[in-house]
């Protein structure tokens, strides 16, 4: 399983390299990029315990000097305090503008490492080595970096492209089932917004809820087609002036749910799954797509073992209010990504608050 997907940006193009067992050749993969010798490897203790030694040995064999920095896993640590700690390590180790920050971990590690790289000395080299399915197919690609604010998810951040994204699918064998399912939410998203054939292939699979359920061939399809979809969209709209907003399908209400539950009760993929169910229901009520398509979407989400209802503990009015401070608000109006068919969506700010409230109420029953 090996492929290269170029992200064709006009100023900072880079490749997504997908290859089984490639983590052991990390140093060899980044050597051609002509980076400085000092590398700051940022990871969580859990991921580092499994893959840290392999990554460091590979980097040292390629002539790099490696410094470690650990951040606990989880959205609750995705804040400016964690970024300040990365800066402290960078100061103590005298990292220079030619130095490189490498993110070894999931989306939270990647987002924070990227934001630190974007702002340390006004920008240093940045490499993404995602270890979760969600990070592989979504968070590691496209240059969105940042941290959460107590009032909302990813309100602080920057667009900052990596020099390389190195994906080793073999690391998924140690990924907890719940985290694998979280990644499948983003995969389903690509099927709805961009790649109807991917959606059909997911429907045809007998099982999808666990890494062990999926053949190597299907896993290759899932990762490569999802990465290709993200690369296609980002190449056409790097900084979300228009088209790239479709990547937020399911994220509008999803982010509100994450924020209101303190980033602990529901993980990102689960929130996106619920958000897709909500967006699909809104689209059906607005007669934008047929109810048959909504049923297909929801059946696929359930087949993956993801939730389709909103926790009853969340106040519906709080969700509607939380949408008003979302990054996607423009001129005071909330932008929704709504499907018109499998593989195609529209961007609209014409969704009445009353309809949003009613849909949220329905999903709590």
TrEMBL record:
Zn(2+) binds at residues 186, 251, 268. Keywords: Amino-acid biosynthesis, Aromatic amino acid biosynthesis, Cobalt, Cytoplasm, Lyase, Metal-binding, NAD, Nucleotide-binding, Zinc. Coiled coil: none annotated. It is found in: Cytoplasm. It catalyses: 7-phospho-2-dehydro-3-deoxy-D-arabino-heptonate = 3-dehydroquinate + phosphate. Its EC number is 4.2.3.4. NAD(+) binds at residues 107-111, 131-132, 144, 153. Residues 183-329 form the 3-dehydroquinate synthase C-terminal domain. GO terms for molecular function: 3-dehydroquinate synthase activity; metal ion binding; nucleotide binding. GO terms for biological process: amino acid biosynthetic process; aromatic amino acid family biosynthetic process; chorismate biosynthetic process. Signal peptide: none annotated. Pathway: Metabolic intermediate biosynthesis; chorismate biosynthesis; chorismate from D-erythrose 4-phosphate and phosphoenolpyruvate: step 2/7. Residues 70-181 form the 3-dehydroquinate synthase N-terminal domain. Transmembrane segments: none annotated. GO terms for cellular component: cytoplasm. Binds 1 divalent metal cation per subunit. Can use either Co(2+) or Zn(2+). InterPro entries: Dehydroquinate_synthase, DHQ_synth_AroB, DHQ_synth_fam, DHQS/DOIS_N, DHQS_C. Its cofactor is Co(2+); Zn(2+); NAD(+). The keyword Membrane does not apply. It comes from the Bacteria. Pfam families: DHQ_synthase (PF01761), DHQS_C (PF24621). Catalyzes the conversion of 3-deoxy-D-arabino-heptulosonate 7-phosphate (DAHP) to dehydroquinate (DHQ). Belongs to the sugar phosphate cyclases superfamily. Dehydroquinate synthase family. This is 3-dehydroquinate synthase. It comes from Aphanothece hegewaldii CCALA 016.
């Amino acid at each position: 399983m090996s492929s290269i997907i170029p992200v064709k940006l006009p100023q900072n193009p880079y490749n997504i390299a997908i290859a089984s067992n490639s983590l052991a050749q990390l140093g060899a993969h980044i050597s051609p990029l002509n980076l400085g010798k000092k590398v700051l490897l940022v990871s969580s203790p859990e991921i580092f315990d499994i893959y840290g030694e392999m990554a460091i040995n590979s980097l040292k064999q390629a002539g790099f000097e490696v410094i470690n920095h650990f951040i606990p896993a989880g959205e609750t640590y995705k804040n400016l305090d964690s970024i300040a700690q990365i800066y402290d390590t960078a100061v103590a180790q005298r990292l220079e503008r030619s130095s490189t920050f490498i993110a070894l971990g999931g989306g939270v590690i990647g987002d924070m490492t990227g934001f630190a790289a974007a702002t340390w000395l006004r920008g240093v080299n940045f490499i993404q080595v995602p270890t979760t399915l969600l990070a592989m197919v979504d968070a590691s690609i496209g240059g969105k970096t940042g941290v959460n604010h107590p009032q909302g998810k990813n309100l602080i951040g920057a667009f900052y492209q990596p020099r390389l994204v190195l994906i080793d699918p073999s690391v998924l064998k140690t990924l907890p089932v719940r985290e694998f399912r979280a990644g499948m939410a983003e995969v389903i998203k690509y099927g709805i917004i961009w790649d109807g054939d991917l959606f059909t292939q997911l429907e045809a699979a007998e099982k999808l809820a666990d890494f062990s359920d999926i053949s190597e061939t299907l896993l290759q399809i899932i990762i490569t087609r999802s990465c290709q979809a993200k690369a296609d969209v980002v190449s056409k709209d790097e900084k979300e002036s228009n088209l790239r907003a479709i990547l937020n399908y399911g994220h509008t209400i999803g982010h509100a749910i994450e924020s209101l539950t303190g980033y602990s009760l529901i993980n990102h993929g689960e929130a996106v799954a619920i958000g897709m169910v909500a967006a699909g229901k809104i689209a059906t009520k607005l007669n934008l797509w047929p109810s048959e398509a909504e049923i297909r979407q929801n059946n696929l989400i359930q087949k993956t073992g993801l939730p389709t209802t909103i926790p009853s503990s969340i106040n519906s009015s709080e969700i509607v209010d939380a949408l008003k401070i979302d990054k996607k608000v423009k001129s005071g109006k909330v932008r929704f990504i709504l499907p018109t068919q499998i593989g195609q969506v529209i961007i609209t700010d014409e969704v009445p608050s009353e309809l949003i409230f009613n849909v949220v109420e329905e999903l709590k029953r």
